[in-house]
Write a structure and sequence with these properties.
InterPro entries: Amidohydro-rel (IPR006680), Metal-dep_hydrolase_composite (IPR011059), Metal_Hydrolase (IPR032466), MTA/SAH_deaminase (IPR050287). By secondary structure, the chain is of the alpha/beta class. It is 37% helix and 18% strand. The strands form four sheets. A seven-stranded mixed sheet has the order 2-1-5-14-15-16-17, with helices on one face. It has a four-stranded parallel sheet with strand order 6-7-8-9. Strands 10-11-12-13 form a four-stranded parallel sheet. The longest helix is centred in the first third of the chain and has 17 residues. It binds zinc ion (ZN).
Amino acid sequence: MHDAELLATVDDARREIAGGWVAVTGGVVTAIGSPADPAPAAARRVDARGCLVTPGLVNTHHHLYQNLTRAFAPALTGGLFDWLVTLYPLWSRLDEEAAYVSAYVGLTELALGGCTTSTDHLYVHPRGAGDLISAEVAAARDLGMRSHVTRGSMSLSVKDGGLPPDSVVQDDDEVLADSQRLVAAHHDRSPSALTRIALAPCSPFSVSTSLMARTAELADELDVRLHTHLCETQDEDAFCVETFGRRPVDYLQDVGWMTDRTWLAHVVWPSPDEVTRLGAAGVGAAHCPSSNMILGSGLAPVAELRSAGVPVGLGVDGSSSADSASLWLEARTAMLQGKLRHGAGSTSARDALEIATRGGAACLGRAGEIGELSVGACGDLVVWPLEGAAFAGALSDPVEAWLRCGPVAARHTVVAGRFVVEDGVPARPGLDEQLAVHRRVSAAMQAAV
Ligand SMILES: [Zn+2]
């Protein structure tokens, strides 16, 4: 990749190189240079004139299966709890075909928006649904995307004081045994891993205390990461105080999750003291600005979290609450929310780019491996065209232009040196066939109730 308008490496020195080039060999960045440096010979050269080149964006929170019930009108009448209660019965129809096709379509959508690594949090495992997590892993591998699939779980149904119906919860032993099986089957510990697994009980209001605590012990034993939703809404604060006599962060501490193995989705409502405690523990946060606005959850204290030392990444969140899955859009929204909270001079496009790349890598325990372009890092990069009417007159600062103009999608999205998106379209043929399957599965799910 050569002759970029600007190459924003987001490396340790935050080097930005006008006319820069990146060489990727064997899936890894092997050299970076300016027009004055001789570029190595390459089997393939990609012209990036007129384009910004960045590291691939990292998605730290998602529920891919929810694109089967995207923008589902009956669910948009109340806040998070009403929304969930409306949708749980539809999601109880999930099976392996639905998990595969929703992941295939959702990861394709993410790649078109410049994402190269995505997490997923699949926490609905209806009885008899099959191996949903392995179906997702297969979709990511077919597409060549880097994925951190989390084994989600719910164990606290309505009859036990939780929110979900009985048909979508499992008991602790079943969840833990399956978690162990999936880590053994798919978790790759190498620095250039394409697939990793994390453990992810869903939330305080859908999981028993014992499952939270036992999952933390298992993650320690298997040396994998922990993920859950926390501090998303004020309703959740009230639920925790009423049910556990504790606020969410105290509850997290009680169940052994205050460790740098953990990253949390949302983190909208921690108190200032809780922000400090999360930072001291090295707990990460997946900031999901669109979802937090659509569900009316609130504005997350992102600057405060980052100042306290919390690694903050970006998440598109599930497609039923954020509907659009573009990390470019989330980065722009994060920038706008930051300015709204702290003034026009705060939260630059570079801050948002940093959250979307290095911040995400830190949340996933992959600092230095992904989220930056430096020698030895994974060869994941995005070529963004800064051309046409939307960018006219904007190139005095290509990074600010990238996020303040647009909208823009990736021209090329490259994972481990391979094109996932080339010239603005998916590199792997077959999307139309997958969309036809998706239409059928989605219609059946929405007709089920
Ligand atoms: Zn979520």
